[in-house]
Amino acid sequence: MESSRSLEHVLSMQGGEDDASYVKNCYGPAAALALSKPMLTTAINSIKLTEGCSSHLKIADLGCAIGDNTFSTVETVVEVLGKKLAVIDGGTEPEMEFEVFFSDLSSNDFNTLFRSLDEKVNGSSRKYFAAGVPGSFYKRLFPKGELHVVVTMSALQWLSQVPEKVMEKGSKSWNKGGVWIEGAEKEVVEAYAEQADKDLVEFLKCRKEEIVVGGVLFMLMGGRPSGSVNQIGDPDSSLKHPFTTLMDQAWQDLVDEGLIEEEKRDGFNIPVYFRTTEEIAAAIDRCGGFKIEKTENLIIADHMNGKQEELMKDPDSYGRDRANYAQAGLKPIVQAYLGPDLTHKLFKRYAVRAAADKEILNNCFYHMISVSAVRV
């Protein structure tokens, strides 16, 4: 897989609205949004607004993807800001207008996003003006001092590129035999950690330029518990996470069947890293310009928990559901690497593996981290 030069042109959640789309498979992010909403509300209420401030407030959702989660986040921000402004203005409805920027990589399915935008805006209790801003959030996207609120939800675990060290065949950091870092050699994990740290600092530097003093930065990202060496500490969750065991097995099936060479498999790596709260705080401290208001570790239940009896009666359906869930986040980058035919075969093998999963009865949970910070 190539570096950031090409990754940002293919990295996206699966577009459209079919069974494998992100729109139909965003259960995890939706659960995380629900759990983080009280913290997001508190964060927005901490923004420094005074009577007679700018005639309109600018909000940016970075890594917005598509679907109801995107609109739900923005509606929360706009609603809380509206109530806060009403208090400032003595209980009357303020004249303030809201401008919302939905931003993601150019590979994002903005067509699907904007098709439902008008309905969502008109159905909202408070209207806002909307625009799309394509581009990587690891680069500058807006003029200096323009934004009042920036949110990024379930996106910052995605890196700007696969670390170059991981792609060096024969090196200690070479991730031979795997497509992600769970269970990989420590040198591989260290290379990912180094890239993740560099990326987060760069992200923060850009936002420091763009957010007004007193503005709010709210980040929700895939994370891991403090002190955990593994990306996914819980054994059951490690087995069932879409990036881990089943994914490696499906790629190995393609190799064993002679459909691809081992070298082809070894050239693909998933550009994701789950940080700890300490890693996030260290990056914020080095960047400067932000004061952390609050940090929370969230434990997200797998959407299949509680459906074990139903799933055991129809394991094939369970396998297809698991494969769809994996495709929602990975299909675009896999297809850019393997092409449509082999990508179809890969996720077909994934579904078969999932259907035969003996751990189907185990509940599993994933960790996410939410951070609210104020621009100082």
TrEMBL record:
Keyword hit for Iron: no
Q: Which GO terms describe its molecular function?
A: metal ion binding; methyltransferase activity
Matching entries from SUPFAM superfamilies are given as:
S-adenosyl-L-methionine-dependent methyltransferases
Might you name a Gene Ontology BP term for this protein?
A: methylation
Q: What Gene3D superfamilies does the annotation carry?
A: Methyltransferase, alpha-helical capping domain, Vaccinia Virus protein VP39
Highest taxon above the source species? Eukaryota
What keywords appear on the UniProt entry? Magnesium, Metal-binding, Methyltransferase, S-adenosyl-L-methionine, Transferase
Q: Does the keyword Chaperone apply?
A: no
Any Pfam family: Methyltransf_7
Q: Which residues cross the membrane?
A: none
Name the UniProt record assigns to this protein:
S-adenosyl-L-methionine-dependent methyltransferase
High-level lineage: Eukaryota, Viridiplantae, Streptophyta, Embryophyta, Tracheophyta
